Amino acid sequence: METEVKEAQGKIISAENPDITAPADWQPVIMGILCNWCSYAGSDLTGTSRIQYPPNIRIIRVPCSSRVDPWFIIKSLQTTADGVLISGCHPGDCHYISGNYYARRRFLVTKKLLNFVGYHENRIQFSWVSAAEGPKFAKVVAKVTEDIKKLGPLHRYKKENF
Amino acid sequence: MARVGVFVCFCGANIAGVVDVPAVVQEAKKIKEVKIAIEYKYVCSDPGQQMIRDAIVQNRLTSVVVAACSPRMHEKTFRKALSDAGMNPYLLEIANIREHSSWVHQKDKKAATEKASDLIRMAVAKSIANEQLHEISVPVTKRALVIGGGIAGIQAALDIADARIPVTLVEKSPSIGGRMAQLDETFPTLDCSQCILTPKMVDVASHPYIELIPYSEVIELQGYVGNYKVKIKKKASYVDFSTCTGCGTCTQKCPVKVPNEFNMNIDKRKAIYTPFPQAVPNKPVIDAEHCTMLLKGKCGICAKFCEKGSINFKMVDEVIEREIGAVVIATGYDLWDPKPYEEYGVGRYKDIITSLEFERMVSASGPTNGVPVRPSDGKVPKNVVFIKCIGSRDEAKGIEYCSKICCMYTAKHAILLHHKVPDSHAYIFYMDIRAAGKGYEEFVKRAQVETAATYLRGRVSKIYKKGDKLMVRGEDAQIGQVVEVEADLVVLATAVIAPKDNPALARLLGVSYDKYGYMSEAHPKLRPVETAKAGIFLAGCTQAPKDIPDTVAQASACAAKVCGLFAGDTMKKDPMISTINNEFCSGCQNCITVCPYQAIVTEEIPLGYGSKEMRTVAKINEGVCQGCGSCVAICRSMAITLAGFTDTQIINEIVAI
Amino acid sequence: MDYSKQIQEIASKLFAENKIDYFVGYKQNSFDDSQVPFLITDPAEIPKLVFTDRSVFNLANYLKPDHTKRKRVGLVVKGCDSRALNLMLTESQVKRENVYIIGICCEGVLNEKGEKAQNCVECVMPDPVVYDEMIGTPTGKREYKVNVDIRELATKALEERADYFESIFENCIRCNACRHSCPLCYCAKCCLDQETSTLYHGANTSSGAMHALMTWSLHLAGRCVDCRNCEKACPSHLPLHLLHKQNESVIYENFQQHLAGMEKDDRGAFYKYSLSDPDDFIL
Ligand SMILES: Cc1cc2nc3c(=O)[nH]c(=O)nc-3n(C[C@H](O)[C@H](O)[C@H](O)COP(=O)(O)OP(=O)(O)OC[C@H]3O[C@@H](n4cnc5c(N)ncnc54)[C@H](O)[C@@H]3O)c2cc1C
Ligand code: SF4
Ligand code: SF4
Ligand code: SF4
Ligand code: SF4
Ligand code: SF4
User: Fold this and answer.
1) How far apart are CA B528 and CA C22, in angstroms?
2) Whose CA is nearest to atom 6 of ligand 3?
3) Is the pLDDT of residue B494 over 60?
4) Do domains B4-128 and B144-235+318-331+508-565 have the same CATH topology?
5) What ranges do the domains of chain B cover?
6) H or E stretch at B63
């Protein structure tokens, strides 16, 4: 199910819909959903450490990655976002003991299903970032932004009037 | 119609140096629901907060958005500002435009400004769906249950009781004291174990705030933090403790002899017995498995001799119920059975004993009157070989972890041997010497110097018999050679393991345990005495192997936790927890499966309005729920709502930009 | 495969011994050779009961909602149906003592074209996993194979798949017949109902249907037993199995070869976890 990215001179081509293009300086919107105890704290640390990362991400705070219902992802992709990043505590470090283990199962299946029906898999990304991993958070956001920039604007299944 | 107030902070230059704050305020004003948007130098300052309070009152705001630093910094501050203005504090949302924007996009002011505006739009959208929430207060029953009467349980019970909180102490065996009662002298100071322990045991028995229930076990726990109900099974002792004076005539007269577990089966006790002379309570119990009267209906000698008529062969087990608010688990440890070490001849050679057997022998009140002897011929040994790490750090035969205390007590044993048999010599086979602790390294040094014990680094490969001696063959890694030591007695420092009942007890209490059977703490570093279940705490070796100082420290920490929990008449809880709309619930009970805190139970409700038929639905106990949201996301029927993070709030955030 | 006689006998016995209040089986359709689900309360109708390779439905669907809480039911199930029933039992939707289960060791049923149905060709468990009485000879569990359509689609380019699914979702009329016909969709209030949620806007657009069907299929991920009752019910003939089989294959491959409803007390792949679950897709 590998899906490659198309590139063209001076323009970005939408991965799912080659008819759609965007100018080279197009900026994607990434919806970031972070758990309160590890990743949100980690992203705060990125800030206090003044580590710079691309400004495309918009962050939503939830208590635990297990609060993330798959339809938050679908909803984001259908409305405002070109990609989604969900981040929680490392396995074994969940503030609520086991939340991220349940979440991990749902994430894998959701990612594969969305890819199956026509989303590039890089539009749906996950990470484990601990409260101490400020630098890692910046790296993850940079990577995800880079990945999604290459994919171009998301046009499939967009809701016209939400 | 929502009326939102937006307050954007400069945070000096921290925000304003990168984000164009006035532009952000202009953007915020464009949002339909925003009634007022103001910028201020430091919103968290007193005048800043005053500004919020005034705006709330003047504009009759329905929710407030502060665009400033992370909610992890000042959420509490601003919530308080809302309350002070007579507004529900949970109508606040924070847009984190410092940590998430100005500080991380310093070189791209335009993008940082746009992002700040978006974050405000999201916070405004979310706040519109915010509901008034109220701190939850849960009543507490101020009585603690301590399970296990070793030094851990004793210390926890005494500390809690000294704070005038009633304690119920449940001990499985006929007496409290635990393993420490079996020890002779204790490292690192060599004070006599009994001398420091028995006064505490007596304190427990006489403390007005402690109810001691010996010879009993917990069989059921229901409820939640502050409000548990426990059922305790008190085993029949066949002796009426209320009349028995503990004179001991019965134990003298009883004709049945049984191996004495307190003395590691080195000598015998009777079928009616007190485990050791200083036992608390100092009353005998009848061992139903061996008493001929109970087994065959014949004998009854003890009853004949008991002047008080305290013996009652018709006594039955009794179930005692108590309402309690917190639990301390202190069930201690067991020792690993070295049988798998066949190459040592364990089981075949009588003169191989375990450390605890050695400990009993050198104990002044022990079965051999404080002198170590060879079990085979009763002679006093001259050459004694101690082997450490028996079962510990041995993935193949035993367990992976280090038992932590063996290095220390083996050094102690070398000293004790030297004291009791001055012309003896100790050989100690070891893998490492782990002596981290106050005075510990010095203690090991002392053992080496004082006793001139021979420390041999290496594993023992074989023990065989030669005449009446045991030949111990091992490797001395320091000289890289095989050595053989002729021993009169071999002492194995067997691994500390979790009590075998721990998993069953953990399940019964609803706490988790690790792969070895030790009770699991909530966080290995920051919450080492709490379990994941609120109101249940861990003390002593039940959580991991440890020595007496660490055990006592943890026990006192438990007491502090219990006292903290009981500090008020009610406990205050964050209202950001989940609730189930039972109209939507289909009763699949999947939420019960995923909740990490057993916060969800079933309840029966009428099938329809006024109906007599019932259906089963799930219900969340607000005293227990920690608000993780696991259940919310797995409930297919969307029957569960997590206050503060509702579906609507999150959707509003997603679509706001 | 014709077990009509045996089923009639069992049904007579159950009514005679007053063990059930009603019986759910199949009846011959009057206008073609297909069959329809048939619920009887009167023993006089027993001779109409049939069971052949035309008995395609999942009758466990007729136990919802809470039927067995009040009535005692006799029910005919094939292998796949019994797995769904197993889940309904685990999820407390059916009272075990109130359902008398006649399990068929299934030889496969036919599709509309008269060929052996695709799910039967790929069936992993034709024997009933829960029953009171079994008909036929058990042949045991079979090897799991990834669905042919999934394998084929996986070879297609992303944009092709996107085109394909967009066109499929376009045809959904949001009638919720799929939800209605699935025995595992018994929720008191379903997330797909507009009034329940803030989820959906613009019902019969491709994006609305995509969101709905995606959420629906994730509610069945690790639970769907591939009976294809939903697909049979869909008036627009959407190939709904694609979504379910896709999830099933991911779950089978990644979560200890999990298959839904095979074991008692298994709630499905999303309600448990293993420490060794795949983690490499997470940064
Ligand atoms: C050979 C040897 C020598 C040692 N020497 C030293 C030393 O010199 N210095 C030192 O600091 N440490 C020493 N230790 C370690 C010391 O024994 C422990 O640190 C200490 O006993 C731990 O106390 P505890 O209360 O956690 O457990 P325990 O002493 O094991 O007490 C547990 C109690 O709980 C009871 N119990 C168990 N299960 C239940 C149940 N389900 N319900 C009710 N009650 C239950 C038991 O009957 C017991 O009374 C030594 C250990 C050994 C093996
Ligand atoms: S998961 Fe939802 S439907 Fe199932 S029991 Fe819990 S609240 Fe009810
Ligand atoms: S929110 Fe978490 S803690 Fe609360 S009931 Fe649900 S799963 Fe349990
Ligand atoms: S689609 Fe989901 S919510 Fe609706 S009935 Fe099925 S499982 Fe329940
Ligand atoms: S989703 Fe369809 S195929 Fe799966 S169990 Fe339900 S009805 Fe059967
Ligand atoms: S039955 Fe078919 S048309 Fe109806 S909602 Fe389901 S997929 Fe859509």
Assistant:
1) 58
2) B631
3) yes
4) no
5) 4-128, 144-235+318-331+508-565, 249-305, 334-497, 578-656
6) strand B63-68
Block residue for tokens 């006599």: B192
Q: Other C-beta atoms within 10 Å of B405: how many?
A: 22
B37-59 pLDDT, tens digit each: 999 999 999 999 999 999 999 99
Q: Where are the alpha helices (DSSP H) in chain A?
A: 41-48, 70-78, 99-116, 134-151
Which strand (E) or helix (H) includes residue B229? strand B227-234
In chain C, residues with a C-beta closer than 8 Å to the C-beta of B585 are: 188
Per mean pLDDT, which range of B141-145, B461-465, B593-597 is the poorest?
B593-597
Question: In C, residues 142-201, which contact A (CB 8 Å cutoff)?
Answer: 150, 153-154, 157-159, 161-166, 169, 199, 201
A93–B contact, CB cutoff 8 A: no
User: Mind listing the pLDDT tens digit for each residue in B440-468?
Assistant: 999 999 999 999 999 999 999 999 999 99
State whether residue B628 sits within 8 Å of chain A by CB. yes
ipTM over 0.85: yes
Q: At what angle do helices C158-170 and C206-220 cross, to 10 degrees?
A: 100
Q: Does C221 touch chain A (CB under 8 A)?
A: yes
pLDDT above 60: residue C9: yes
Q: Do C188 and B647 touch (CB under 8 A)?
A: no
Helix/strand number for chain B, H first, E second:
18, 34
Cβ separation of A162 and B655 shorter than 8 Å? Answer: yes
B651/C198 Cβ within 8 A: yes
Contact B638 C188 (CB under 8 A): no
What CATH class has B578-656? alpha beta
Other beta carbons within 10 angstroms of residue B94's beta carbon come to: 23
Q: How distant is the Cα of B642 from the closest Cα of chain A, in angstroms?
A: 9
Residue C263 near residue C130 (C-beta atoms within 8 A): no
Can you tell me the distance from the alpha carbon of B573 to that of B137, in angstroms, rounded to the nearest whole number? 6
User: End-to-end alpha-carbon separation of chain B, Å?
Assistant: 20
The whole-angstrom separation of Cα A11 and Cα B402 is 61
φ/ψ of C102, rounded to 5, equals: -100, 110
Q: Work out the average pLDDT over B505-533.
A: 86
Tell me yes or no: is domain A27-149 CATH 3.90.1170.20: no
Residue B291 CA to ligand 1 center (angstroms) comes to 28
The candidate with the shortest Cα–Cα distance to C222, out of C190, C182, C266, is: C266
Of all residues in chain C, the one with the smallest CA distance to A17 is C159
Q: Which among B6, B34, B4, B32 has a CA at the least distance from the CA of B116?
A: B6
3-state class (DSSP) for residue B50? helix
Tell me the C-alpha to C-alpha distance, in Å, between residue C66 and each of C27, C72, C77, C83.
Answer: 24, 11, 18, 18
The H or E element that residue B329 is part of is strand B326-329
Q: Cis ω on the peptide bond leading into residue B188 (within 30° of 0)?
A: yes
Are residues B292 and B281 in contact, defined by beta-carbon separation less than 8 angstroms?
no
Indicate whether residue C190 lines ligand 4 (CB < 6 A): yes
Domain B334-497: CATH class, spelled out: alpha beta
Pick the CATH number of B4-128 from 3.30.70, 3.40.50, 1.10.287, 1.10.10: 3.40.50
Q: Is B625 near ligand 3, meaning CB less than 6 Å away?
A: yes
What is the 3-class SS of B431-475, one letter each residue? CCCCCCCCCHHHHHHHHHHHHCCEEEECCEEEEEEECCEEEEEEE
Judge whether B189 and B343 are in contact, CB under 8 Å: no
Biggest alpha carbon–alpha carbon distance for chain C: 65
Cα B282 to Cα B146, B402, B403, distances in angstroms: 20, 36, 32
**Is pLDDT at C111 greater than 60 in this prediction?**
yes
First-last CA distance in chain C:
52
